[in-house]
What we know:
mainly alpha
Amino acid sequence: MKKVSINLTHVATLGPVGHLPKAPGTWGSAAALITAPFLFLPFQLPVRILILGLIFYFGAKACSVAEEQFGRKDPGCVVIDELLGQWLVFLPFPAVVTWHLIAGFILFRIFDILKPFPIKQSEKWLKDGWGVMIDDAFAGLYAMIVLGLLRYLT
């Protein structure tokens, strides 16, 4: 029987996505947005929570390996954290339409780039890849709250 091994650096970069030219975080968020209707949104809330928990755990492990391999903290090509944050935006919503997806994408990118309190600080709360993942989780949480308000107001 042949042993199967997973390259954690490829997991951290979502394969080729993190290596696309310019703005890898935006590419990672776009990949998450495109795949969400097939790999995340069809599931019920408990399964979504499980999916996000697994992405957080294995993403943190993969980010730690990638940081070691690339020799720097939170390398730009690491985009699994964008997958976590982008999908987290849509966690509580049983149904989304196109404008929700677009608004969620824009809101997540805004919070991920601007990093208002405590997003920026949260990177230092946890070591290694855990810190890489947690700040995008907070950005996703902020975007989720704002998207929820927009949905409520429309």
